[in-house]
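Amino acid chain:
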Amino acid sequence: MSAVTDMFTLRGKASAAAPQQPVTTLLPTPKARTKAPAPEVKRVSKSAAAYRTISEVAAELGVATHVLRFWEGKFPTIKPLKKSGGRRYYRPEDIAMLRMIQDLLYTQGYTIKGVQAHLNKARKKELQQAVAQHLTPSQVIAEVKAVRDLLAEGIQAGHSAP
C-alpha cells in the first residue's frame, strides 16, 4: 500500500474517492517581516532638573535604549538611579555626559577607548584647576551663594523697573 492509499483508508477499507495525486494545502504566503516602528514616547514637558527614564533619554538623543545601557557599562561616570524593578532614572548631569559621549563618538569619530581617554584627561584637568585655586568646599559654597544673591538682586531690580 502506498502512503497516498494509507491516507484514504477508512477502517482498513480503501475509499472510492481517493485522489490519484497527493492533496496540497495552499498556505498563505509569508509576509515580508518588517521591524515594528518604535513606540511613541509621550512628550511631557519637564523641568530641566527633572529625572528622565531611559526611553525618554533615548528618544531625546536619537539612540536605542540598549546603546545607553552599553554606555553605562563602558563609562563609569554615567550612573542613573535605579529604582525597584530596575527602572533607570537619569539625572541632568548624566544626560549632559551622554550628549558629550554621543558627540565624541558619532560626530567627532572617537572610538570607545578614545572617549574614555578623553574623559579621563578632562577629569584630571578639572582636578588640577581646583587644586591650583586652593578652593575648599565651603569656599565654593560661599561663591555660589554670592552669585545667587547677585542674581536675586538683578531680578528684583528688573521687576521694580517701570
